[in-house]
Amino acid sequence: MLLAGLVGCGNDGARCVDGPELVVEPGERSKPRALASAVVVDEVTHAGGGEAHSFAGGLVVRALRGGEVLSADDRAAVIQLLGNGMPDGLSRGEWHERVNDWLNWLRADPTADVAPMVDVLLRIVETSDDEVLRVYALQHLGMVRHRVGDSSLAARVDAMMSRLAAEPFDPVAGAALMMGCENDGPTDDSALRLAESERASTAARVTAIHVAVDSGDVRVLPLVRALATENETPLVLRKAAVYAIGRLGGPADAEVLSQLQGEEGVIEAAVAAARKRLAGK
Q1: For 196, which of 13, 207, 243, 276 is 20 to 30 Å away at the CA?
Q2: Rg from Cα positions in the chain
Q3: Residue 197 neighbours by CB under 8 Å, 6+ apart
Q4: By C-alpha distance, which of 60, 16, 13 is closest to 34?
């Protein structure tokens, strides 16, 4: 297997691996990309060890930071690495950063077929036990959904977003709801149901309230009025509720906000902003 060391590693966050130095002459910036493709394809084909995998991934990221577009072989190799999962020798944090870098670069070419990337992202969301990685995958799915030309694949994405948004116990329910709405996916009562669910995480309920507000769903008002005035409501959820009252409420909601007089910190600021919005209606 062909392996080369990274030039100047340590200054840009790239992982250092011992080996001969890769020298790039001025005007020859295509060489790192070609070498990255060769190394990664070799690694994927021959199923090398974790160190080789880490080096290959780092070299791809380094080459791409030069602003080059991925070749078809590069794309296929990186997608294969994504599907293979986290290698030995990387922490979860390092793996998350690397995956996010790869996904950003995979999306960078507006002419590339995103179907293979979408297929891997769906697999990550549906099978991974890594919550952070699942959220990353959902976010990137949301950003490329409009580029999916295959109607059956697009239907899989939409169905998964809707299903997850309706599962309050799933920690990524809020992210799925948000991504589905941003792509005009079917939301029906998903936001309202998730906001109302006491089984859902606080973060998911906050997201659901914001989605309901953005869609102008006034049916959420009874819920947010109650949440805003209950002291046992988590602080971030109360703040979201007050925000929703300001956006969706009417003159009568000034009385609800008056019950929050004397609150301090973020709630006080949220109440002041909500009062201003109501007064402007």
Answers
A1: 276
A2: 24
A3: 168, 205
A4: 60
Question: Within a 13 Å sphere around the CA of 216, how many CA atoms are in the beta-carbon half?
Answer: 0
How many CB atoms within 10 Å of residue 207? 24
Q: Are 118 and 144 in contact (CB under 8 A)?
A: yes
Run of H or E including 215 = none
Mean pLDDT of the chain: 75
Which residue in the block uniquely carries the two structure tokens 């005035």? Answer: 229
Q: What is the pLDDT of residues 120-151, one digit of tens each?
A: 999 999 998 888 888 888 888 888 888 998 89
Rounded mean pLDDT, 29-36: 47
- 184: phi > 0 → left, psi -120 to 50 → alpha, else beta; which? left
Q: Which of 216, 172, 224 is nearest to 195 (CA)?
A: 224
Residue whose token pair is 């602003």: 67
Number of Cβ within 10 Å of residue 199's Cβ equals: 11
Two tokens at 18? 């011992």
Q: How far apart are CA 95 and CA 86, in angstroms?
A: 6
- DSSP code, position 146: G
Token readout for 56 is 């290959």
Give the whole-angstrom CA distance, residue 104 versus residue 256.
Answer: 44
Note the pLDDT tens digit of each residue in 82-100.
Answer: 888 887 777 888 888 888 8
* Closest by Cα among 268, 271, 266, 234 to 256: 271
Question: Between the CA atoms of 195, 219, 216 and 221, what dihedral angle is there, to the nearest 10 degrees?
Answer: -80
Confidence of residue 187 (pLDDT cuts 50, 70, 90): low
Query: Hunting for tokens 């077929």 — which residue is that?
Result: 113
Question: Using an 8 Å Cβ cutoff, are 180 and 186 in contact?
Answer: yes
Residue appearing with tokens 């493709």: 37
CB 3, CB 39: distance < 8 Å: yes
